[in-house]
Every structure is written in C-alpha cells, then in structure tokens.
Amino acid sequence: MKFSVALTITVVTFFGIAIDGNHCKVVQFIFGDSLSDVGNNIYLSKSLAQANLPWYGIDFGNGLPNGRFCNGRTVADIIGDRMGLPRPPAFLDPSLTEDIILENGLNYASGGGGILNETGGYFIQRFSLYKQIELFQGTQELIRSKIGKEAADKFFKGARYVMALGSNDFINNYLMPVYRDSWRYNDQTFVDYLMETLKAQLKILHSLGARQLMVFGLGPMGCIPLQRVLSTSGDCQERTNKLALSFNKAASNLLNDLSNNLPNASYKFGDAYDVVNDVITNPSKYGFNNSDSPCCSFGRIRPALTCVPASSLCQDRSKYVFWDEYHPSDSANEIIANEIIKKLGFQRVDRNDHAPSPAPAFAPSSKD
Ligand SMILES: *[C@@H]1O[C@H](CO)[C@@H](O)[C@H](O)[C@H]1NC(C)=O
Ligand SMILES: *[C@@H]1O[C@H](CO)[C@@H](O)[C@H](O)[C@H]1NC(C)=O
Ligand SMILES: *[C@@H]1O[C@H](CO)[C@@H](O)[C@H](O)[C@H]1NC(C)=O
User: Fold this and answer.
1) What are 319-349's pLDDT values in tens digits?
2) pLDDT confidence of residue 18
3) Residue nearest to atom 12 of ligand 1 (CA)
C-alpha cells in the first residue's frame, strides 16, 4: 500500500518535470508579525522582541525555543499543514539556499512588525511589512538568477501568499502615547491610513506576481492578558476590540475590492474574531480552563512582557487560551486555524500542481 502510493507520487513528479522543464513546487511566502515569526527575530540581535529562551517552543519538536512566540504551532503552521504545504523556513535562517526556497518557500514574519514602518519602533529591530516585501524582491532576484526569469515567474505566480499583520499597529503604535501616530489620528482615520498602506503593499505584491493570497484578520486583541491588566477590573478593553472589528471590516472590503480588480488575483480575507471571542467568554465550552491570563507568567508580576526561564508554567498548557501576555497558545491557534479554513473553504494543494491557475484559491486546480 505504502509502496504504491510512493510509486504514484514518483510517476506524477516525473511527468511534472517532463512537462515543465523545471521543478516548480507550490510553496508559501509568509509576511507577518510575532504571530507568524518562525525565527527571524532570533537573528536580529538587537531586537527586544525575541522568543529565543525557554519556555517558548516547549510543545514543538524537541521542545527548545525555535523563534515562535508560542508553546507550539502558529496559525500559519497549522493552515499550511492542512493544505499539504511545507513549512517555510525563516528568511534569516543561515542555512538557507535557493534549493531550500524552491522546495519550501520563505517566511519573512518578524515579531514587533506592522503594516506601518513606524510601528514597533520600541523593539529597536524588526521587519516592517514594507521591509518584508523588499526582502521578498531580493528573494525573487536570487531565484531568477538560479532558474531563469520564465521559470521564476511561474514559480512565484503559483505560490501561495499569507499576510498576517495589524495588531502591532494598534498595540505597539496607535494605542501607545509614545508614538506620534497616537495623536495624529483618530480611530477612524487610523484604520483608513492602515488600509491605504495595506492596499499599496498588496498592489506591489501583485505586481511581483502574487496571485493567490490570504490575509488573516485580527482577533479580539482587547482581551489579550496584556490589555486586561490595563484596567483594575481585568476586563477586556472594549475600545481595542472595536478597533480590531473595524480593521477586519475594512480589510475584508479591501480584499474583495482588490480580488475583483487586480488581474487574475484571488485575494482573500479570513478572521476568527467571533470564535475567539466566544472561546474567551465561554472557555469551558471549548475545553479551556483559563482565558484571561498567560500560561507562562512570572510569579505575580503582571504584565511580564515575555515568558522567561524563571517564569512558571500553568499545569495544563492545552487548557489555556493564552500562552504569554500577547500570544495565543497552540490549542487556541488550532481553533483559529480551523475557523479560517472553514471561512475560506480551501482544500489541500496537490504538491505537483504546477499550474499557476487563478481561482479557486487554495484548492487544487480542477485541471489536474
Ligand atoms: C517604509 O520603509 C521602506 C523601506 O523598508 C521605504 O522604502 C518606504 O519609503 C517607507 N515608507 C514610508 C511611508 O515611510
Ligand atoms: C492572467 O491569466 C491569463 C491566463 O493564464 C494570462 O494570459 C494573463 O497574462 C494573466 N494576466 C496577468 C496580469 O497575470
Ligand atoms: C478551571 O477549573 C477549576 C477546577 O476544575 C474550576 O473551579 C474553574 O471554574 C475552571 N475555570 C474556568 C474558567 O473554566
């Protein structure tokens, strides 16, 4: 049984190469912040947003820190796995080669990064979305010089693109009085400014060949433990949640608009706001026992900005919605990923699907 499956894959791959004359696999390129970072910030030595110490990564692989700001998998990990796509390595991974990129794609996500250049300045070093797109352009040049322009164009048009940023633009910019944006804009004009910037960025990605792209929306970020400690009651920050909702609504419209107007673009927006809100309100319904404080915490000192080796861990990590002050746990990420998959309705990608076909996004081409 196993043997015949292996044989079929070999045959299909063989024909794929024969038809194409090159090995264009379907891979992902990921742009994001700490919710999707898989190690870039570890190599930004001056960055104050790092997940390079225990107990980050405790439920992932060998249990050592790997750069993910989580105990386990990110939402993008889980969604990519379900689509049958390889997990792209971090852009700054020193062992990277062109062949690794052609086989696995690349992840530019960086903790502290935002849609806006000025977001997260407090972390000293991070890749903003513009910077990540610039790095992607460098990757394209590298791949073109390796496999030629035509094959490279095909490779980049067939790839899947994931973009997940925005919470830092609020939490580590607009809502912090130390940032200029906090007094330059109001809630509405700030969201407009984000959308204008995001639109320009998505258009650049389209001009660079991105055809199948999904943007993840924001969760109820007023309920992250860090936001709750801002009030003596420990309640969620309603204004912050409203900003997330308003971002999601505007981003959803933007993506619809771009998808309809950019040639061959299948650009989708998916958020899990409502489900996460329900998880936070009714944790036991989903098998959680805590939805308001971090699993990894430093005694009674709150907020402890990151999880550190001296922190203590909750007894059952799978029963906590939040891993640290900012980030959901692996179990919560699984719920978020399932919701986005349900909303966007994509299926597994056939790894040998070479066609850079437009719609339906994230579904195997019907031609194959
Ligand atoms: C943002 O940063 C990029 C470099 O990463 C730069 O090219 C661009 O002009 C900047 N945009 C603004 C609006 O400052
Ligand atoms: C859109 O797809 C068609 C068919 O694959 C192709 O001929 C055309 O050049 C594409 N346009 C753009 C802008 O990618
Ligand atoms: C967590 O579990 C304890 C002990 O079973 C229970 O008393 C408590 O109400 C639970 N908390 C939540 C939020 O489910």
Assistant:
1) 999 999 999 999 999 999 999 999 998 778 8
2) 33
3) 117
Residue nearest to atom 2 of ligand 3 (CA): 289
Question: What pLDDT is attached to residue 306?
Answer: 84
Among the bound ligands, name the one nearest to the CA of residue 113.
Answer: 1
241 domain residue, yes or no: yes
Residue 303, preceding peptide bond in cis (omega within 30° of 0): yes
Distance CA 79, CA 343 (A): 12
Range of the domain at 136: 9-344
| Three-class DSSP category at 143 | helix
d(CA 60, CA 323) in angstroms, rounded, equals 13
- In angstroms, the CA 202 to CA 215 distance is 10
Cβ contacts of 227 within 8 Å, gap of 6 or more: 171, 221, 236, 237, 240
Question: Is 192 a residue of the active site?
Answer: no
Report yes or no on 275 lying in a domain.
yes
Q: Are 54 and 73 in contact (CB under 8 A)?
A: no
pLDDT band of residue 351 (cuts 50, 70, 90) is: low
Q: How far apart are CA 15 and CA 226, in angstroms?
A: 53
Whole-prediction pTM:
0.89
34 catalytic? Reply is yes
Alpha carbon of 290 to ligand 3 centroid (Å): 7
Annotation marks residue 365 as catalytic:
no
The tokens describing 70, both together, are: 């989580």
| Three-state DSSP class for residue 190 | helix
Helix 330-344 × helix 75-83 angle, to 10°: 50
Give CA–CA dist 73/70, Å, rounded. 7
What is the count of structural domains for the chain?
1
**Measuring CA to CA, which residue among 233, 268, 119 is closest to residue 185?**
119
Give the residue, out of 289, 290, 318, 331, with the most ligand 3 atoms within 8 A of its beta carbon, to mutate for a pocket test: 289
Q: What CATH code is carried by the domain that includes residue 273?
A: 3.40.50.1110
Four-residue CA torsion sign, 346, 363, 67, 240: negative
Mean predicted lDDT score pLDDT of the chain:
89
Contact 266, 358 (CB under 8 A): yes
In this prediction, residue 293 carries a pLDDT of 95
Residue 363 lies inside a defined structural domain of this protein? no
CA distance 238 to 76: 27
